[in-house]
Specification:
heterodimer; A: 334 residues; five-stranded mixed sheet; globular; B: mainly alpha
């Protein structure tokens, strides 16, 4: 007995921010090769919209697009970095808003780029060990709320989104094995430093920090060491994929598609070449949405469903990597 | 390890907004027209994929010229 991904839907906020909009605001960035990221457009959460509002809309879309009865959901899992309240858990709030039944478990975690693949493992646990038949797995990212307006790099790369995946019990083990790891010493490579339990907001938190490329951040806004994360990814992800394939007794040619987290197309192309994955097996899905953190993989899968790429028996390697620093991958059979 | 001239040819190829033949060892890479975080990433990627050498953001901050950068890569390549 195992679990399988049944259907996926996603929600994008109404407001868009295209490259034309970006260059109007930052004309000095024209001709700096930012297009190598493969991004043309991002969707930006409204100031009065929360991450859970987006997750709610993604779930409603899933229910209506695939005729899912909310009462049939036995477990809700939420991957969300920006909770509605300190307590209670946002998954409880969503449980109420979505009208899920009382006999429905909830669980949530604040992982970022690796969250989707971790969530598949947790959903599998809910199904195989906790008796759930249907798991609603939501991911939502409102990262742009944390940006300094002058942080050009982040504003070019990231967008907001939410996704909803339905996982169901299966006679066969359709997801797994997993390969994962963490480098906790790299926790400050991707960080919002002040404004939580460790560091309160002080005057110093709001002082602007300008990097060598003219990006403005502060201790209270999102900051990422782009080159450090790049080197981490190039070192970690190829080794992880090699180990996963070994564990699954698969070769690259046995896998139909490789769907990685989509930080940017330049980095993913470097990874693809280093691992030796043929172009036709490697999915790029970033042009219309940017890097949506824990939403990139399910958005890519949803688009693949729409394009008819995920038919019965399709084997896909999924890999998430980033904030933490953390990494995880698995094999999913459709 | 490539010579510095070969290194520069590869660098110019990767930095696609830079005309071939415009860089030399004494050029401060921060003065390359359109120098950006993307260019920094391209340089780090080139060092990683072509020479299997990790050049960090800190290295890029400490170095000034293309020659400085080449010396780091050459010394780590061994």
């Amino acid at each position: 007995m195992g679990s399988k991904i049944s259907v996926i839907s996603y929600y994008l906020p109404e407001k868009t921010f295209t490259n034309e909009d970006f260059y109007l605001e930052f004309p000095e960035s024209k001709g700096t090769s930012l297009e190598k990221t493969g991004i043309y457009k991002r969707h930006i959460i409204a100031p009065d919209e929360t991450a859970s509002d987006m997750a709610f809309k993604a779930a409603e879309k899933l229910f209506s697009e695939h005729q899912i009865d909310p009462q049939s959901i036995d477990f809700l899992i939420l991957a969300c970095i920006e909770p509605d309240y300190y307590t209670p858990p946002t998954s409880a709030v969503l449980h109420g808003r979505l009208g899920l039944k009382p006999a429905c478990g909830i669980m949530e975690y604040n992982h970022g780029c690796s969250a989707y693949v971790y969530g598949l493992g947790m959903a599998d646990g809910a199904i195989t060990r906790m008796g759930a038949k249907r798991v609603l797995f939501l991911t939502t990212s409102s990262l742009t709320h944390t940006f300094h307006p002058g942080d050009k790099s982040s504003r070019f790369v990231f967008g907001d989104a939410a996704t909803a995946t339905l996982l169901e019990d299966s006679d066969t083990e359709d997801i797994g094995p997993y390969e994962y790891g963490t480098n906790g010493n790299g926790y400050n490579r991707i960080i919002v430093e002040d404004g939580h339990a460790r560091n309160a907001i002080t005057e110093e938190s709001l002082m602007e920090i300008k990097d060598d490329f003219g990006n403005i951040t502060s201790r209270a806004t999102f900051r990422m060491d782009g080159t450090g994360v790049f080197l981490f990814t190039m070192k970690t992800v190829p080794a992880m994929i090699e180990e996963l394939l070994k564990k699954a007794a698969l070769k690259i040619e046995d896998v139909d598609y490789f769907v990685f987290h989509q930080p940017n197309e330049f980095l993913n192309e470097m990874l693809r070449k280093k691992i030796g994955i043929p172009e036709e097996k490697f999915i790029h899905c970033i042009r219309e949405t940017g890097n949506t953190v824990q939403c990139t993989i399910p958005i890519a899968l949803c688009e693949m469903y729409a394009e008819g790429k995920l038919t019965r028996g399709t084997t896909v390697v999924l890999a998430g990597f980033g904030v933490g620093l953390s990494w995880i991958s698995t094999v999913a059979k459709f | 390890m490539d010579s510095i001239d070969q290194f520069i040819v590869k660098l110019e190829r990767e930095l696609d907004m830079v005309e071939p033949g415009t860089l030399n060892p004494e050029v401060n890479y921060r003065n390359i027209p359109n120098w950006s975080s993307m260019y920094a990433l391209i340089i780090v990627a080139l060092c990683e994929t072509e020479y299997d050498v990790a050049v960090t953001g800190e290295d890029l901050r400490k170095c000034n010229t293309i020659s400085d950068l080449y010396n780091i890569v050459a010394s780590r390549k061994g």
